[in-house]
Amino acid sequence: MDRRDFIKTTGGLILTVGSGTYAFRILSATGVSVSDTDNPLIGKKWGMVIDLTKCRPDCTDCLTACRTENNVSFHGDKRWDNHWIRKVKIEGEVGHTKVEKMVPLLCNHCDNPPCAQVCPVKATYKRDDGIVIVDHHRCIGCRYCMIACPYNARQFNFKNDEDWPNEERPKRSHGVAEACNLCAHRLDVGQMPACVEACQKCGANAILVGDLNDPVSEINRITSTLSVKRIREDLGTEPKVYYLGL
Amino acid sequence: MKINIGNNKTAVFVAIPILIILILILYGVISNVVAIGSEPPQVLLERPDSKYDKCVRDTEYMRFHHWELLREIRENVVRYGKRGEEDINKCKECHTSRVNFCDQCHNAVSMSPDCFGCHNYP
Ligand code: SF4
Predict the structure, then answer these.
(1) What is the pLDDT of residues A140-175, one digit of tens each?
(2) Contacts of A181 in chain B (CB under 8 A)
(3) The model scores a pTM over 0.80
(4) Ligand 1: which residue has its CA nearest to atom 2?
(5) CA distance to partner chain B, nearest, from residue A109 (Å)
């Protein structure tokens, strides 16, 4: 082997081995870093059904429960108040009679969430169980998600709230966007979200949260047999909050 | 060989800022070297008849890497929903006071992490 051949072979060898390892590292690094068997979230798909025929128009128990559970900032001034869940009055006409409905609105945990698509730092993302959640550690407060969300479900923390009703849970400091997280911390340990519990306690029992992937779950029975509606289905965001009697 | 750096005035304008920067850098280095042997900040390790007899990691690891552990826990909880035994809320069961524990070292090294803006630690 002369000098020229030697350089060619060694160079080729180094290139192959080097690029091979590099490619392997890149390929194995894609996707989640926790392996699928290790990830407790895979396989679930949380959804919610709100039964407007049972929901009482003047009841605000779920709103209060949400606020105390998640330390949502509330100053009594609508410029700075945040609502993870709020009630909106909808007026319309059926035939010649006017109808009025109070509809609880919250983050729809879209299957195709525009808020997560626009987030420049991947602070908003869809968890593997379908919950759309904000990593407030990472949020830079750019408010793109508030513009992207067609449901106006996102709010911004303009001010720090001094109150701390639930000290076990964090609150948000000034300068991050937030929305309902379907009480992910409660679902993870097998409890129902705070609004669901409050709704059961007041006797209306209008909110139901369950696993849409589970074929025998109550929520699956309702969404597949009764006439449920989602808000603005035409947008293609695939919301996972279903309304009965909207 | 003679290097021409212009007249004397230019030389002064160049030399003085360089000198100031050098002094600042040296000050940083020297003050740190001097501080090596000094007393570490006194941290109160409270252990009120707790149910745990030791920390989640050994002291040496916690002293120099606790933020890495916290970051790991945070990633597991926020991204993957794995809420296990290790939890930032559990720290305060033994280390009951932030002023006597966290703040002692953080103040000594002029760190101001913003954990406590959102997480409750009495
Ligand atoms: S409702 Fe709005 S905040 Fe919730 S997932 Fe959809 S786009 Fe995002």
Answers:
(1) 999 999 999 999 999 999 988 888 998 889 999 889
(2) none
(3) no
(4) A149
(5) 16
Burial of B2 (C-beta count, 10 Å sphere; 0-12/13-18/19+): exposed
Residue of chain A whose Cα is closest to the Cα of B76: A34
One-letter amino acid at B23 equals I
Q: Which two tokens stand for residue B14?
A: 């160049």
What is the rounded CA–CA span in Å between residue A116 and residue A124? 5
Distances (CA, A) of A173 to A141, A161, A177, B27: 11, 8, 10, 36
* Partner A, chain B 74-103, Cβ-Cβ below 8 Å: 74, 76, 78-83, 89
Atom of ligand 1 nearest to the CA of A108: 1
What is the residue extent of each domain of chain B? 1-38, 59-117
The phi-psi region of residue B35 (left if phi > 0; otherwise alpha if psi is between -120 and 50; otherwise beta) is alpha
What is this model's ipTM?
0.73
Is CATH 3.20.20.10 the right assignment for the domain spanning A46-244? no
Answer whether A107 contacts ligand 1 (Cβ < 6 A): yes
